[in-house]
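Team,

Forwarding the record for the chain on the shared tracking sheet. I've put the sequence and predicted structure together so nobody has to dig through attachments.
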Amino acid sequence: MSSVWPRWSPGSWCSAWAGGGAPPPRPPPRAAAPPPPRAVGYGLLSGVAIAGYTLWDQHAVGPLAISPLLLNWVDDAGRVLLLAPVAHRRRAEVRKLWHECRLLLCGAATIMPLPYLLFLFSLRLAPVSVVSPIREASVLLVVLASGTLLAEGHRRARLLAAAAVVLGLSLLATGF
């Protein structure tokens, strides 16, 4: 976790997200240094992983005819199995979060699967070359949030990467 997170209690995040209180304090601005080559490598590796599971999703709901609901359920069950040991080790923190943010957590648990389910159902209707880039447009929101809410550095590099996403989406939309 980032060094910023310990300064923000779960309760301050819950109240800020639920609109019931003041937002958490912003971290002090950091001097922007160029990203280390290792970070760029991790970014490229993430891109390859995203491409791989996107093609798997298309194959699963397409030729294999697996229901998007079933695929999402199995995916969630896998996450539960992977994260259960961590939650068990940190059960006091989980219990505190549950007591402070129960309504917010239930709302998030209800809403979170919807974008992925819409993506899976759209893969049945359109080619992956059209659906996937539109899904990745969420990167633009992450760039804005990371710069605004978390005051993360490298804003120029992030905005340039976001511009590349917009350019790619534009080229796909125009048929290039």
